Known about the structure:
Elements: H1 2-16, E1 22-26, E2 33-39, E3 42-48, E4 53-59, E5 67-71, E6 80-86, E7 94-102, E8 107-111, E9 119-120, E10 123-125, E11 130-137, E12 140-147
Antiparallel strand pairs: 1-2, 2-3, 3-4, 5-6, 6-7, 7-8, 7-9, 10-11, 11-12
Organism: Pseudomonas jessenii
Protein name: VCBS repeat-containing protein
Keywords: Signal
Amino acid sequence: xxxxxxxxxxxxxxxxxxxxxxxxxxxxxxxxxxxxxxxxxxxxxxxxxxxxxxxxxxxxxxxxxxxxxxxxxxxxxxxxxxxxxxxxxxxxxxxxxxxxxxxxxxxxxxxxxxxxxxxxxxxxxxxxxxxxxxxxxxxxxxxxxxxxxxxxx
Length: 153
């Protein structure tokens, strides 16, 4: 009888524990504060600046745990972020969605690679100012090099 009462009490306690969310706050540029709240497969982005405020939600099709990464992905001096996860298969590849801070609008814009459908196994090459990722063409692994010198700011 005591075991049943204990089990029911523990089960009730588990239902009352809130879902854990990962929160990070950073400044993409001076005078701007960004807060990211990652809960399950949903990301809430709140940007507060002197002239512009933005709040939006980004949904991910994710089975595995999502992770945050911060870097200057387009080499413009502003802090950007990426959300990544291991692939749902054997956990061999990392899939990234990269969000670039746009100084003119005070918002984050999702970046697409110059090759392939998305950033897989992303690496930041600061020396060449390029993002390196993997894609497949006719089941052959290729490297995508995403450069920013040709892109508009």
